[in-house]
Amino acid sequence: MKQVAAAAAAALAYHWWASRRKRTAKERREAALEKRFEAKAGLTLYGNVASPCTRRVLIHLKLHGVSYKFVEVNLLRGEQRSEAYKKINPLCKVPALRHDDLILYESGAISYYIDSKFGPQNEPLETPWLDWELSLADAFSRLSRQYVDAHIVRSLHARPHFVQDLPEGPFAAKWTRIFDGTFCEGIEAEACLERVAAHLSELEGALADGRAFLGGAEFSAADAAVLPRLLKCPQNHFLRTPLQEERFGNIIAYVERCLALPVLDAGAAQTRLFWRPNVVGRFVVPVLEAWGNVRNAAYSTVHRASATAVDAAVARTPKFTARPSTTARTLVVDAAAATCFAVRIAARELGDNVTVLTLDAPSLERLAPTPDALAACGALAGGCARLPLLLGGGEAVAGALAVATQLSNGRLGDSLDAAVSIKRWMHWARSVDGDVLQRLYALYVGPRRLLERGGIEYALAPLPPVERTLALERCRDCNAPLDTALTAELAAALATVEETLANGDLAPGFPSLADAFAFPIVECAHACGAAPLSGSVAAAPRPATLAWRASLLEREAFAEVGAEIGRLWGVDS
């Protein structure tokens, strides 16, 4: 009895000591974040006003006069990677929305939910322009990482105190490249500049008819989709030089009209800082950049692309030519693009009578085949070619989200919950494809396919000079091991699929567009070895995903696409 009493007393004493011991800095930080990110009644938006995606959602909330709470997620302090925030968004991105018991991430799905819940139904014009913005972001994000994020981080941190304090693993490796100015440089940076210029040419062509806003006389969700990304252009020397003021005059006037509206008050400080560069933008920011380079001189210097280099890229980019209409209903897809596989499945599953025309263009940036390749099939796209492309009768529709919505006649489910779930997974697939799969294909899979064909110079001849040089570099390096940062990010994304499937379907009405979009992402990741489904040293087994995949492969459309992905994405280890 005495021994039991002594043991109980010892346990109580230990509990008392443990509850009062000094917590580590990490534990105190996590506790503070748990409190800040805890659930609150009503609608709460978690984000950062520097994020274009967060600003897009803020605009939608203000458009409909929705009352909400805003919780700041400090990206420079890594709060998006905290355990507290992962419970809200396991992908560690902003924004995220909590409405009572509902948690949503992916800004496109959040915007759709806000529009459907608090305002008119999601307008048809928004999705095509959101597709355009996502495609622009694919080219822009690497530039912004190198030319904007690197400078901000370097001015605030000395390298040892920043890089060494990062969590070990792929994330640290990614930010080390950003910090040291090796994330996007040389010929790749030039190619990104040209792609951004091509997208701006497409927008300039759309605004050339004199419309005040993208939807006509009134500011709408379509403008909310594109505007936040445009506001970051001057940070990268776009839309701020005399040459570009002449070339993109309609875009600049359009942005100024938008900024005069009260709905754009969110993030106004950043707008003043970067869109209309005053004393702070012209003098303080360069001083901060110089200070960051001096402070970290022993670890290389970040050189931002000069305004002259950006102007040269703009001058090389042809002006956008409107796509011609055609009476034949035709779906133009890239042979190996994950999102193109998704719309092919959607067309078959929805029973849509559409002719599929596949382009096996030699471009390694799969979603931007050469204008020559598109012209050969009668689908001119001027300086910017975004696939998939749906032609037929009226104006052509470009981009996977817009094409899938058009094929389904805008019907995404029998209820708001179903529609929001489908939207979320469609945007999830588009995001994973843009952030990871395109890069994996461009670095490893595509170059190996070209090498297998032989005659590399001939195969790459149709590409513009900068793209051709970049492709040759990638063909030289394509047998290097897979980038660990990319594979880790892909594995984290697929973990959300496994978790969702373990608790049911991705969305009501299996199979739905959610399955059609998620399936090619899973198959491409599996085929190239970046994220095997059966488990390996680098990845845990995903039994729910395997069962879901087996069910889908029983359907003809999914089985056909699965076999094609295995042929085009499969690589020998």
From TrEMBL:
Top-level lineage group: Eukaryota
Pfam family, one: GST_N
SUPFAM superfamilies to which the protein is assigned, alphabetical: GST C-terminal domain-like (SSF47616), Thioredoxin-like (SSF52833)
Domain GST N-terminal: 41-122
UniProt domain GST C-terminal: residue ranges: 119-287
Protein family according to the UniProt entry: Belongs to the GST superfamily.
Protein name listed in UniProt: Glutathione transferase
Source organism per UniProt: Pelagomonas calceolata
